[in-house]
Amino acid sequence: MMLSEQQRQKPIRILVSKLGLDGHDRGALVICRGLRDAGMEVIYSGLFCTPSQVAKIAIEEDVDAVAMSLLNGAHLVLFSRVARLLREKGINDILLVGGGIIPEQDKKLLEKEGVMGNFGPGTPLAEIIEYITNNLIRKR
After folding, report:
1. Rounded Cα distance, 112 and 110, in Å
2. How far is CA 84 from CA 1, 4, 51, 68, 73, in A?
3. Contact 115, 68 (CB under 8 A)
4. Whole-model pTM?
5. Facing residues of 20 across strands?
6. Domain segments of the chain: what residues?
7. I need a labelling partner for 17 at 20 to 30 A (CA). Which of 6, 36, 57, 76 fits?
């Protein structure tokens, strides 16, 4: 698919979110900086967001992607809820990316819900940036 000149010049707009009662945001802040340094427009939700808040911010800010981070084990419930809320609103063109402590068997379940990537601690920033960039290009 050929991108228009406007699409090539428009920076990727991404929401980085910390969901639920997970107060550990160091990794999310590193991701924010890495995405920003790669030329993306980054919106950070702050801590303790609900799935409803994340979906609302994503829609209001007209983002291309949502990167969700969670370390407390509630990823199946919270990430999936964000995906369902966006689908219920008819939003199908936002790339949803997960990250945090996610067991291998849960990654497949999240992918069925539309949450892709599901990167763990220590994943190189370049790998995450490449994944987001490559998957957005396919969607545009």
Report:
1. 5
2. 28, 30, 9, 14, 19
3. yes
4. 0.89
5. none
6. 11-139
7. 6
